[in-house]
Design a protein that fits this description.
By secondary structure, the protein is of the alpha+beta class. Helices cover about 50% and strands about 10% of the residues. The strands form 2 sheets. A 5-stranded mixed sheet has the order 2-8-7-4-5. Helix 1 (about 5-35) runs antiparallel to helix 3 (about 70-95). The radius of gyration is 40 Å and the shape is extended. The chain starts with 5 loop residues before the first helix and ends in a 19-residue tail after the last helix.
Length: about 650
């Protein structure tokens, strides 16, 4: 009968404790490294211009230092991990001190060198046996166990038989049989503890484990791709369509499920503040479609941010706004994926442009020049007037520094900020090419797999340079530069839309699709920034497809034709079974073969016989596989073409 074993229970406990503390310490150390030893670049707290200094300081304050670890979950996990680590150490030394689980080493037990002579061994044995004798250590099981080990060690070094067994099997008692026990502590069998054991079992198996499984499932089942909640996807599907405008997207974003608990205004003061901010932003807002307080609050806070009126909101509402902006990038990406599912190119492009406005803290009627630090409406008006006046940001960047207008009232440091920003802002060139892989000519035929290769070159980077963080001093979180590449039909249907995140100077993105029916087509190619306004690129991609019937007839090489007659691995396996079944049939057919030869029927050649056997084998194999026909009829295959 299997017995409970305290030593084995220690090993089991060590295993379970290790499963928790190893990943937990990894998480804790990583958090500590970020809080105490991370560089400013790692947390995105870089200030390339004076306009970014305030943002960098706030990021350092919220992302570095011990105060960033003041989280209830982190502190609770730290306490649990420390306690379990102490338990791990205690279990480890308990296992190490247990003689039953250590390899038997008589020299180590007697505390003598492996080359000690018999005199030293006897002296050490006498000393330790007196020290750990049970009469001198009453009621001490550990001393009694050590005394027995000392006696066994002395026997292994002095008795010839015991010494031979030790040298052969590692134990003076000879070859040991394998002992199997249950890795649970023996106190579980104690009658006095049965009520406690039963109660613990009920709490763990009926309470804690089902609760943990339910909690994990209920939380994980709420989230879909990009860690966006399924309720948010449902909300986006309900409100996004091909007619959605950019000015209606703040309200759509405000209704995301991630914000519903936080943006619920519960006090009269909060509702009054929302009303006051609404009065200031109302002229910039589309008429709200939803009066729900959660959606209204989020919509108002976003418009206060986009119209640069955040000074009108309280500190508490500013934290709520930052919470929304923290998740805005992933939620806008989710909105774009919904538009992709709906195949609405116009809606997807509007969502991308909305993301640009969120990154720069601007709105629809604002000039692109407001992306430059220190620029206000006055500087924008001056930069657009007179000689060297510009309409957009790209024209302003192309001017040399001496010709840039709107800088008269700026200090030298502010002017330097503007010049640096002009170098940081993207300067890209786009090239596109349509081709068919492994094609003998440059023509495209119906059904070919076409590739549209879009090459993005960042001209503002040096060779080998990498694009860094977006210059967005108003957006409170670091944001990486990326480009959206979209290909659609002239009817507004999406063929492909992807986010290109590579920071390299030259980036190539490939779009693959099947060539439509014979004709001439035009597709719309759009390359849009994820964070900058006014740097979008649009072009037309032309594609002419030809009738595939004009292609020369494909002739099968004789060697390939012979390969078609070779049996497959499945057919060979079936042939092995068929040959066994046909042994008896050959004997029955021998008489009929003789009669056929007498009747003047020509005997098959070996090649013909082999071919006939192969055909019969294929028929039987197809029948065994459940296929009643060898026909290659493709009449049920549906061809899908681009519009």
């Amino acid at each position: 009968m299997l017995q409970y074993d305290d030593s084995a229970a220690a090993f089991v406990a060590l295993s379970f404790v290790t499963i928790y503390i190893v990943p937990s310490w990894y998480h804790i150390i990583r958090k500590l490294r970020v809080a105490l030893f991370s560089s400013d670049e790692e947390i995105g707290a870089i200030s390339r211009t004076t306009a970014e200094k305030e943002k960098a300081a706030k990021l350092k304050k919220t992302s570095k230092g011990l105060k960033t670890l003041n989280s209830p979950w982190f502190l609770a996990n730290l306490v649990i991990t420390v306690l379990l680590t102490a338990l791990f150490v205690w279990l480890y030394f308990s296992v190490q001190s247990d003689g039953e689980v250590n390899s038997f080493d008589p020299f180590h037990i007697l505390d003598v060198d492996s080359g000690a002579d018999m005199k030293e061994i006897k002296k050490a044995y006498k000393k330790m046996s007196l020290k750990f004798h049970p009469d001198k250590n009453p009621n001490n099981p550990q001393a009694e166990a050590t005394f027995m080990m000392v006696a066994k060690a002395y026997e292994a070094l002095t008795d010839p038989t015991a010494k031979e067994n030790y040298e052969k099997y590692g134990n003076p008692d000879g070859k040991q049989s394998l002992a199997v026990s249950i890795g649970l502590p023996e106190f579980l069998l104690n009658v006095d503890n049965r009520n406690f054991v039963l109660l613990s079992y009920l709490i763990i198996m009926v309470g804690l484990i089902p609760m943990a499984v339910w909690s994990y499932y209920s939380n994980s089942s709420k989230f879909g791709e990009k860690d966006v909640m399924y309720d948010s996807y449902a909300w986006f599907h309900h409100n996004l369509n091909e007619h959605i405008l950019i000015k209606g997207l703040p309200e759509v974003l405000s209704g995301s499920a991630e914000f519903r608990e936080r943006n619920m205004t519960k006090t009269a003061e909060g509702q009054q503040e929302i009303g006051n901010v609404l009065g200031k932003c109302k002229q910039h807002m589309q008429k709200p479609n939803f009066k729900h307080p959660v959606v209204l609050k989020g919509n108002v806070l976003l418009h206060a941010y986009l119209t640069r009126q955040t000074e009108a909101i309280s500190e508490a509402f500013q934290e709520d706004l930052n919470f929304m902006l923290r998740y805005s990038s992933s939620l806008i990406d989710a909105m774009i994926s919904v538009c992709k599912h709906q195949e609405s190119l116009a809606a997807a492009l509007n969502c991308i442009k909305f993301g640009q406005y969120v990154a720069q803290g601007m709105w629809l009627k604002d000039s692109e020049l407001l992306q430059l630090p220190h620029f206000t409406s006055a500087e924008v008006a001056h930069a657009k007037k007179g000689k060297n006046g510009v309409k957009g940001i790209k024209e302003y960047i192309d001017l040399d520094n001496a010709s840039k207008k709107g800088l008269a009232d700026f200090s030298d440091a502010q002017k330097e900020d503007i010049f640096k920003t002009c170098k940081l802002l993207p300067d890209i060139s786009i090239e596109s090419k349509v081709y068919v892989d492994d094609d003998e000519d440059d023509n495209v035929y119906e059904g070919d797999l076409c590739t549209v290769a879009v090459t993005i070159t960042r001209n503002n980077l040096e060779d080998g340079g990498k694009a860094g963080l977006v210059h967005a001093p108003r957006f409170p979180f670091p944001k990486r530069e990326a480009w959206w590449v979209a290909l659609g039909t002239t009817q507004g249907k999406i063929i492909s839309i992807d986010k290109v995140t590579s920071p390299d100077k030259v980036v190539e993105h490939k779009i693959k699709f099947l060539a439509p029916k014979q004709g001439t087509y035009e597709f719309e190619l759009h390359v849009l920034s994820n964070a900058y306004v006014g740097f979008d690129y649009s072009d037309t991609v032309e594609l002419k497809t030809l009738d595939p019937s004009s292609l020369p007839e494909y002739k099968i090489h004789p060697d390939d034709a012979e390969l078609d007659d070779e049996p497959t691995l499945f057919e060979e396996m079936m042939n092995a079974n068929i040959e066994d079944d046909s042994d008896s049939d050959e004997e029955e057919d021998s008489d009929s073969d003789d009669e056929s030869e007498e009747g003047g029927i020509r005997e098959l050649t070996p090649a013909e016989r082999k071919k006939q056997e192969l055909q019969n084998a294929r028929k039987k194999a197809a029948s065994a596989a459940g296929d009643d026909s060898d026909s290659d009829d493709d009449s049920d295959v549906e061809e899908v073409h681009a519009d």
